[in-house]
Amino acid sequence: MAVTYTRPVPFDSHPVVEQKYIVPTPSIEEMYLRVKKLIRLRTPGGIIFAHPRFGKTYGVRYVMNVLREDHPKAVMLSFGCQMKKHHSEDAFFSVLLAAAGHPGALTGTIARKRAKLTDKIMELVDRSGHNWLVMFADEAQRLDIIEYEWLRDVHDELERRGVRMITLLIGQPDLLNQKSAFRIGRQTQIVSRFMIDEMQFRGLRTADDLATCLAGYDDACFPAKSDWCYTRFFLPAAYSTGFRMVNQAAVLWEAFLEAHQSARFEHAPEIPMQYFSRTVEIALLENAEHDDYNFVLTPAMWRCAVADCNFVSAQEELRMVMLDE
Fold first, then answer.
1. Residue 69 parent element (H or E)
2. 223 preceded by a cis bond (ω within 30 of 0)
3. 280-300: b or e for each residue (b if 16 or more CB lie within 10 Å)?
4. Residue 166 and residue 110 in contact, taking contact as beta carbons nearer than 8 Å
5. CB 301 within 8 A of CB 287
6. DSSP 114
7. Which residue, 4, 48, 221, 292, is most buried by CB atoms nearer than 10 A?
8. Do 119 and 157 meet the contact criterion of CB atoms below 8 Å apart?
9. What are the E-state strand segments in 106-155?
10. DSSP 3-state of 144
11. Dihedral (CA of 256, 257, 263, 266) sign
């Protein structure tokens, strides 16, 4: 690497190395716009679904961060729905209390926890200056009807106090089956509160989609407010002579297409976000030591990165799931 460039922080502490970063994608942008509309219209709930590894959980984090810029004082809570053998009302309200930041999430009777949750949310909403909050439920396909009823109790109690709770169910396509089952079972009280809107969170389907994501590596900086974007951090010499990740979209898309076609998949190529980002991480980390003023990421380097991220194996698993569906 050219010796004239000294990185501002240790290599191993960078968010890309630690996999603690998010770059915007077309689906994340769509999610953000959809949630903004639900807030504007005060729609009580909706479903955002995708297959595993498509990046929906990271998308929620990104959307919450951007929404906080739009509404700095707004209340936005997020909790993960847990896999369990038995449904526990006590445990369920402990999870919601923890999501609301209540210090006594694990103490008290069920009735007391219910009251503490309502009081805590009302406290947060009163401070926000709004009369609404957004609740994100991740892996929501794990929720059973009784848990929806408990969540409905929270929704209804807040509404009696003049507060609208907008609930976003984030999960796998099983959520659509749940919605159909609730409709057939005439559980309209659940559908009308939590499942009115639907959005499919998609993977990356074109070279333009990849370009949108790759531009994020050219734009995002670490440390914050420095001029060390992610691309520059890993390839500072190449960056100084015009190398940009966004210009790699066509060659990277071709590498994914080759892998897809070699595996003889019949479905249209759709790159889950996890495998896209892992591919980029591999390309940057494996080649940082080769950085120089004339360095370029070659098609062969991208093909190796696509192979190393196990994209084909992931697509095979996805193909089996799609066949089952």
1. helix 56-70
2. yes
3. bbbbbeebbeebeeebebeee
4. no
5. yes
6. H
7. 48
8. no
9. 132-138
10. coil
11. positive
Would you say residue 209 has pLDDT above 80?
yes
The residues facing 197 across adjacent strands are 46
pLDDT over 70, % of the chain: 96
Q: What is the mean pLDDT of the chain?
A: 93
Most confident of 27-31, 213-217, 267-271: 213-217
Enter the tokens of residue 222: 């670490």
Residue 9 CB neighbour total at 10 angstroms: 12
Q: How far apart are the first and last CA of the chain?
A: 49
Map 301-316 to HEC letters.
Answer: HHHHHHHHCCHHHHHH
Sheet of 197-200, strand order = 75-80, 132-138, 164-171, 45-49, 197-200
What is the phi-psi region of residue 256: left when phi exceeds 0, alpha when psi lies from -120 to 50, beta otherwise?
alpha
* The two three-digit tokens of residue 51, written as one number: 């297959």
pLDDT digits (tens, 9 = 90+) for 274-303: 999 999 999 999 999 999 999 999 999 999
Residue identified by tokens 């591919």 is 279
pLDDT in tens, 31-52: 999 999 999 999 999 999 998 8
**At 317, is the pLDDT very low, low, confident or very high (cuts 50, 70, 90)?**
low
**pTM for the full predicted model:** 0.86
Task: Reply yes or no on whether the pLDDT at 324 is more than 90.
Answer: no
- DSSP letters, 86-127, are S--HHHHHHHHHHHTT-TTTT-S-HHHHHHHHHHHHHHHHHH
**Closest to 146 (Cα-Cα) out of 217, 91, 227, 184:** 91
Express the helix, strand and coil content of the chain in percent, nearest 5 each: 60, 10, 30
Model pLDDT, residue 320: 61
